[in-house]
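Z., the sequence and structure:
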Amino acid sequence: MSINLEFIDIALLSNVQDAISEISDLSFSTYDSNGILLIPLKREDKLISRIKAYASGKDEHEKFIRNGIEKAITRKEASIFK
């Protein structure tokens, strides 16, 4: 599935993301169906930052994100990973 980004209002999507983060106390990123980052985290967990500081940790984190995106695409529904 391909998304035409010219039809997505990133500012509005960012506001929605901020509201959900505030309500849920979870910070999250928004990706498109190709795994391209649309909106980054507003605040990153300190543990994740440390893990990503190492090459192997960064690779594992990227695999984890890619796997989550692939599963979300298959389900055709919103997906949240903590």
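Residues 5-75 form one domain. The chain has one domain: 5-75.

Let me know what you think.
H.
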